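**Entry details**
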Amino acid sequence: MKIAVVGLGYVGLPLAMALSQKFTVVGYDIDEQRVVELNEGLDSTNEFSSAEIKGAPISVITNDDKLLQDCVAFIVTVPTPITKDNTPDLSYLLAASATIGKYLKREDLVVYESTVYPGCTEEDCAPVLERVSGLQTDKDFYLGYSPERINPGDKSKPLVSIQKIIASKTSEGRALIKHVYESIITAGVYEAPSIKVAEAAKAVENAQRDINISFMNELALMFYKMNIDVHEVLKAAGTKWNFLPFKPGLVGGHCIGVDPHYLAWKAMQVGYIPKVILSGREVNEQMGIFLAEKMIAALAQKFGGEIKAKRVLILGFAFKPNCADTRNTKVIDVYHSLVKAGLLVDVYDPLVDAKKVSVEFGLQLTVQPLYPYDGIVLAVPHQIMLEAEDSAFASHELKISI
């Protein structure tokens, strides 16, 4: 079986690496620079070492879609972002579907892993496949969905150790998908009764975490005004056996920072306003500004209100600890709020790609913190960064975190 993995980012690359141990794999991505880097053994996501990439038996990594023509299975792992007004952006998904459609043949299999709203695979993607290929879903080719569960930066939970949900409308399709994933997933697969159930399950996984964290963040906002340490409150509450161990923090990334909007959008399309989901998103979106305001207030108290041109260091720029991923990072909100207040701000993060940050956010990261600073914001506590900066951070008079 020759399998094409379409999209080689945080989801696609680990999948291609794992599948290549059992099948002939073509890794395809439209990003020419990403393709060049991977062929040179460089993974900008920091998920794999050069030796791991060069040692993987992936048949070819390419941006030439003609090399997809001999594949009999296509797994789609492209981004599904949102627009500025928080509506689903399916442009990558539909473009990938059109590309696959050019090479789709009878008896081929197409599986989507990208996070979407319930109904997207069958109602939005399948028609593109059919239009371009001239074939019919579940009659001429098999369609399936298997939501990704990659956790960037978490080496303790590799792809193969996480149970996989699979779904297809036909028994033949399910059997094919099961064959593919069971060959690499040691944790096994779970067969959902429908593609819509599988799509909804993925959206719910992410929305649940988003909502739980939003409650913690609301507590942080509330107790800050009461002059109570929210972390001490959670520590005390956590002594009860059934207390859930969520913590307040910046919520960025793709899974919990973006995906709940897909579920909310679909709900509103069918006439239901998901108040809890939207309220949680609203709370989490303001935490970057809140963190900056905590620093501004602390500086104002320390310097009698004269804070202009005071020097502040932000530690961390990725969307979460111990990860190089900067997608939808809320640290940029912290930075802009501090700069707007007239502060001189350095941002330090040794894990992220500084060139990428410069291009995407217009921000020049500092290569090395230039102490002393008037205040330090611990935005993203990378372990490697805390170890390197331990003495300076721990002993600093004015340090702020959520």
User: Anything to note?
Assistant: The longest strand covers residues 2-6. The mean pLDDT is 94. The chain has two domains: 2-192, 215-400. Residues 148 and 196 are 15 Å apart (CA to CA).
